[in-house]
Write the structure tokens for this entry.
Amino acid sequence: MRRKVLRLIAIGVLTAIISGCVTNRVSLVDENMVSVEKQGNETVEVLWTDVYQDGEDTVVYGVIRRRSHTSYPVKTRVDVAILSPDGTMLQEARTPDIHVARRVPGKGIDWTRFNVRFPGMLTQGSKVNMIVHSGSHVQDGDETAMKAVQSAVSTAVR
């Protein structure tokens, strides 16, 4: 009997600790502070996304998945841009290369998580744009590719 009581107390304490750690994150999207626009490509789709504050940082995260059932791996990345309420770009960042698993029905998880951390807090009405690109990252000196990303973000804003 005593073991059962101790076991119940231990389970209660663990549940309280775990639920306390999980509730720290408040979704800025659910609170209508920011809006998110996501744009997949022909091979990868964005299933869901969220934005939350982690201390003084803003974290954008989500899940991507292949659109089709093919047998080869896909290397992709997600470019994330934060826009002010008037549409000017405040910050942008990229995920490292992400290898998206192939989709095989009945063979486990077929999606991949990503997250991008930005310093600072977002203002009310900010917009987060996410664009999925296939292939490897561009080099920092490749201005043509960066202009293409900025053009795609500015087109998505209009």
